[in-house]
Fold Choline transporter-like protein.
Amino acid sequence: MSCFVGALSDITLAGAFASYYWAFRKPKDVPSFPVIQSLGRAFRYHLGSLAFGSLILAIVKIIRAILEFLYQKLHASQNKVAKVIFAILKCFFFCLEAVLRALTKNAYIMIAMYGTNFFSSA
């Protein structure tokens, strides 16, 4: 849920800033309520893209939480090979989450600016 709310705020703000940036005559062509209009566009046209990007991030976060739980349970044991494997997996999923977070954030900006779907924007 928090991934979806963050994605909604990202695309709303990006759409509001883009509507100001691409206004030909700044005071005249800027919409009256750009944030409200951008939020409406996000709900009307881009809800599926937001849900998909949020789902990807949520799955990676759940896997990281499970690995952290298993690592804490394993921490008391003396099996050094398992500790090393879990440390490598934790590092991998941490890096994967950071890359996916940056990728989805940039995809949300592209969605707000150009109106494309998630895969085209990513």
User: Anything to note?
Assistant: The helical segments are 2-21, 26-29, 34-45, 47-74, 80-114, 118-121. DSSP finds six helices and no strands in the chain. The CA atoms of residues 12 and 36 lie 8 Å apart.
